[in-house]
User: Fold UDP-glucose 6-dehydrogenase from Halalkalibaculum roseum.
Amino acid sequence: MNIAVVGTGYVGLVSGTCFADSGNDITCVDIDENKVKQLRDGEIPIYEPGLKTIFDRSIREGRLRFTTDLEEAVKDAEIIFLCLPTPPGADGQADLSAVLKVAGQLGKMITDYKVIVNKSTVPVGTADRVREAVAENTDAEFDVVSNPEFLREGAAVEDFMKPERVVIGTSSERAAELMTTLYEPFVRSGNPIIVMDERSSELTKYAANAMLATKITFMNEIANICEKVGANVDNIRRGIGTDSRIGKRFLFAGIGYGGSCFPKDVQAIHYTAGQNGYDFKILDSVMKVNEKQKVSIVKKMEDYYGTSDFSGKTFGIWGLSFKPETDDIREAPALYIAEELVERGAKLIAYDPEAIETFKKATTKEVLDNTTFVLNQQDALVDVDALVICTEWNEFRRPTIDRFQDHMKKAVIFDGRNLYDLNRAKKSNITYISVGRPSINV
Ligand code: UDX
Assistant:
């Protein structure tokens, strides 16, 4: 199939590349000339495992092209994917100006039947607004489809290639058939392509992310109770996760959810509910609990040291990204924790395998002035008063105990991601304080 992908951000690039890999002809279009040049030169601006291999192959075999010319990109396309930014506007609701602007332009360009697909996460009712914006400028036939993406950063290629489900929101049979044909190669294992109306499809995306954020938050609250009553959240996770109605995944307590999707989407669906006269109470709590959870580790540090004055102390930080296998630091707990620690007078030595540069760009001047960034995990331990773990990168899971004791001023670990086994910690003389589990050697 001939497909145009408008917007070469995270979603556009992954979708375009993966569609090309299944044999389609893809033209990706972006207004950013530098980006298009970079992509034409074979450089990918994001870090995503597995993407480069299929990107290179699709370019080599001529199935993936990049241009700044929207008209050229959509001329022969049967399907046009809109993968444009929808940043939160002043009222917390997604800003649709980029999407609607392109919709208007498409109206002026299309002359034969096209399927125009919203792939960005957009508020309920956006398909209707896009339809109106296109229709204003054309008499040609077209359909607007909602097709939300459920990609996880760090596993986007895998998620795209083998989705657990594909959701297609359209009331047009013709569009549904084209979209189903496009996605069939990705669900050969029998996973469903679920066709529904546009509004339900738009809401499905928000409901999925809000449910997952709620699940994590629920476990974080269980962890907080565990700390009060002397129970262990690991045991509870195993105890309830085996109930298939609950499920094993997304039950890991920690220092809160972050990233570019959960915080934004929970806020957006809460807002949409409010706009429609419904008070979505559970999501209000989810947001409040998560804000507190992100810095809960700082409170534990204050309790341990018996003061909120950390001047004269240096802390090592392991992990800056909001989760492993990404350099994305949007809404990362590490951003908030670093600020709180520096505010209390601490100096920091920070390490992350991928996210140091993105962190530097996003953090405050105060944090930058008081932080040394290092290029390996061990250097973040040298002469520190304690180590604070913010992200569960794999390489943090098995450091030898000697490494901690040899380098640190005092072997104290505040672990926001529950990386270490409590029995092993007990056998060492490391002070180990984690989330929802008994503290060791305090
Ligand atoms: C998420 C959704 O999973 C994806 O379907 C959607 O399209 C975009 O948002 P992503 O933001 O990449 O993807 O991250 P994900 O792996 O889902 O993790 C989100 C956050 O939850 C992270 O901060 C992670 O650390 C946290 N988390 C996850 C927990 O705290 N505990 C868990 O058990 C799982």
Notes: Residues 259 and 388 are 19 Å apart (CA to CA). Residues 205-292 form a domain with the N-(1-d-carboxylethyl)-l-norvaline Dehydrogenase; domain 2 fold (CATH 1.10.1040.10). The mean pLDDT is 95. The chain is about 45% helix and 15% strand.
